[in-house]
Amino acid sequence: MATALEPLLVTPDRRFVETIVARGGGDLKRCFQCATCSVVCDLAEGRRPFPRKEMHWAQWGLKHRLVADPDVWLCHQCGDCSARCPRGARPGDVLAAVREQAIRHYAVPRFLTAWANGAATLPIVLLLPVVLLAAALLARRPLEAALPFGEERGFYAAFFPHWLLIGFYGLFTGLACLAAVVGMVRFWKAMRAADAADGTFPPALGILPSLGRTVRAIVTHERFARCTAQKPRRVAHLAAFYGFLALYVVTLWAVLDLYVNPYVFGLASQYPFGLLHPMKVLANVGGVLLVVGCVKAIVDRRRDAPGTPASTAFDWIFVWLLLAVGVTGFATEVLRFTVDPDAGLAAMAYGVYFAHLVVVFQLLVYVPYSKFAHVLYRTVAMVYAEHTARRRPVPVHPDRSFDPHRV
User: Fold this and answer.
1) Final residue of a domain: which of 89, 107, 125?
2) Could you give the CA distance from residue 155 to residue 273 in angstroms, rounded to a whole number?
3) What is the longest distance spanned by two Cα atoms in the chain?
4) Is 32 helix (H, G, I), strand (E, B) or coil?
5) 31 and 163 in one domain?
6) Residue 4 in domain
7) CA 284, CA 289: separation in Å to the nearest integer?
8) Dihedral over alpha carbons 155, 160, 161, 163 (to 10 degrees)
9) d(CA 277, CA 358)
10) DSSP label at 190?
C-alpha cells in the first residue's frame, strides 16, 4: 500500500478521457476538486464518498480505477451534484459516461457493445434478428416433419409456433445470459483486486444477506427517492421497472402453462389467455406501466432544468427500444382479437407480430451490451458494497496520516 512518501506511477489513458468527454462527460477541466459534489450527494455516504474521487481519476484518465469502482454504480445520476457544481463540471454525467465505458470494458465479445449502441450501426444490428427469425421460419416445416410436435393453438401460432418461438429465444437469450455472467464475474474480480491493492474493505457481510438488502433497495427504489434535483425521474423508473417485470412474469407463466402444466401436473393449458384471464390482465397492466414509464423518461430527459442528465445514443436507443416493445406488444394484442384470419388481414397482423419479435430480440439478446446492462452491473456493485460494508463510515485512526494517493 502506497504512503505519502512513496512515488506513485500514474499511467493516464488520454483516449479514455476524450471518450468520457465525448460521451456526455462535459469539460473535466472545469472541476477543481472542491468536493461540493460529494457533500451535496445524499447517496455518497461511507468511507470514500463519490463523485469527487471519480472526477479526480477521470481527469487523470485512470480507466483501470474507474471501471473497477463500485461507487460509479451506486450513483443514480439524479443530478444533485451537477445542479450544484459551482464550475458546471457535471459530475453526474461523467459517472454516467464511465458506466457506459465499464459495460464496454467487461462485455464479451466487446465489439457488440459498439454495434448495439451506435446510431450508424443500429440498422445492421436490427437486421440480424430479422435474418435469424426468417431462417427459423424457413426451418419450421422440415423440423415439424422430422419431430413429433403437438397441435399449436392461438392466432399467431399459425405463423410462428410456440415450440419454435421458445426454442429460438431460449437459445439466444441463454447465450446472452452466459455473456452477461462472464462480464459480471470479471467486474466482481476487478473490484476485489482493486480493494486488495488498496488494503481496504474486507468482507463484512455474507453474499446472501447482501443480496437480500440489494433486492429490497431495488424493489423500492429507496436510494433514488433520496435525490432532489431530478426526483420526478423515480416515477418513470418505477413504472418501467414494474411494467417490464410484470411482462416477464407473464411470459414465464405462459411457457409453464404450455409445456409444464399438461405434462407434469396434468392440468389443461389455458393458453392463449383470454382478456379476463389474470395473466392477461397482469400483462396489460404491465404493458401500460412500461409505455407510460418510457414516455415519461423521454419527457424527463428533454426537460430544461438544472441537473437534467445529458443523453447520448446509449440512452436513447434503450429507451426507444423499450417503448417499441410495449407499443408493438399492444398492437399485436389488438390485432389478435380484432382480425379475422379468413378476411385476408392475417398477413398484416403477422407483420406487426414479426416486428414485435425483432424488437424483443434486440432488447433481450443485447442485454450485456446495451444500457439494459445497468440492471446487472448496478446490482453486482450494490451487492459488493453491502458485502464489504463500503457504505458504512469508519472512524479514522488518530495515528493514520493523510495519504493523498488514496483520494
Assistant:
1) 107
2) 11
3) 85
4) coil
5) no
6) no
7) 9
8) -140
9) 26
10) H
pLDDT of residue 77: 85
Nearest 5°: phi and psi at 240? -65, -40
Mean pLDDT by runs of 10 across the 407 residues of the chain is: 58 84 78 90 80 91 93 89 88 92 94 87 91 94 80 81 91 96 96 85 84 92 78 87 95 87 72 88 96 94 79 91 96 88 79 95 94 95 90 51 42
> For residue 357, is it within any domain?
yes
Cell reading at 258: 404450455
Domain count, the chain: 2
The DSSP annotation for 307-348 comes to TPPP--HHHHHHHHHHHHHHHHHHHHHHHHHH--GGGT-HHH
DSSP one-letter code for 401: P
* Dihedral angle sign, alpha carbons of residues 218, 373, 107, 76: negative
- Sign of the CA dihedral 258, 264, 268, 274? negative
Whether residue 51 is preceded by a cis peptide bond, meaning omega within 30 degrees of 0, is yes
Cell of 389: 460494508
Looking at the structure, do residues 47 and 156 belong to the same domain, yes or no? no
Type of residue numbered 275: L
**pLDDT given for residue 9 in this prediction:** 67
Among the three residues 79, 107, 135, which one is the final residue of a domain in this structure? Answer: 107
CB 66 within 8 A of CB 102: yes
What pLDDT shows up at residue 396?
46
Q: Report CA dihedral (330, 333, 337, 339) to the nearest 10 degrees.
A: 90
Asked whether residue 243 falls in the same domain as residue 95, the answer is no
Q: Is the dihedral of CA 146, 152, 155, 161 positive or negative?
A: negative
Residue 347 lies in a domain: yes
Report pLDDT for 393: 57
Note down the domain range covering 187.
Answer: 111-387
Q: How many CA atoms lie within 13 A of 195 on its CB side?
A: 20
Query: Cα 44 to the chain's mean position, in Å?
Result: 21
Residue 3 is which amino acid?
T
**pLDDT value, residue 118:** 84
DSSP 12-28: --HHHHHHHIIIII--G
Round to whole Å and give the CA distance between 144 and 94. 53
